[in-house]
Amino acid sequence: MSFEVGAPLPEQQLRVTRADLVRYAGASGDRNPIHWSDRVARSVGLPGVIAHGMFTMALAARAVDTWAGEPGQIRELGCKFTKPVVVPDDDEGTTVTVNGTVAEVTDDQVRITLDVRCAGEKVLGMPKAVLARG
Amino acid sequence: MAVDPSLAGRTFPATPPYQVTGERIAEFAAATGSTYEGGPAPATFPIVVAFAAMTSLMEDPSVGIELHHVVHGEQRFRYTRPVVAGDELSATLTVDSLRQLGGADIIGTRSEIVDAAGQPVCTAYATLVHKEEQP
Fold first, then answer.
1. Structure pTM?
2. Closest CB from A20, A24, A81 relative to B73
């Protein structure tokens, strides 16, 4: 993909189910029960099981890899975790929508500002990525 | 209970070496909806090693963090190179900053992740928000 400053990147809609969270807990080592037990999640004031912040960040990175055309091009990645992604206990789960805009293109890198939402609300604060420009 | 104010500037021992295998990368990729066919690991994969370093910090009794009061506030990665299968990684965590905000400790951490030769792979910056128990 060629990158042009100000150009919007194709929107990506990524599904999240409880099964994904259980797999992620195992793969990442983060076994905090708020990511798999409604009982524990509610006991700390959450509406129900929420995705790991790092899971949502991984989805954002996946979207950036898709725009880059291949993995391994990301030089920097960052975000704040501002709002939880609540994942219902059904087959549909929820959907995270990732949009991006090219903020800067230099000789050797491309800076992208992201917009990551669930149910219309931003779930990551100031998400951004820097790609190597091949 | 607030965390120990002398925590700022402290560096913790390196985590034990973590063997990156194709299977581990494939599991991580599958969990986040990607596929792995060799080559670079997903960008957030180094969190596995950084998380181990953060856990040692949070479980250190001298630090005074209560694990279930910690929220991950912010995460940043700066990569020297992508992680690949065959890497043996370890992370050394330093507490870069510590401040109080509205009854919470805001702990800025930096984990330098290196390979078996000690060469840099990635720096993972995490902000941990430690909320004090309400009386």
1. 0.95
2. A81
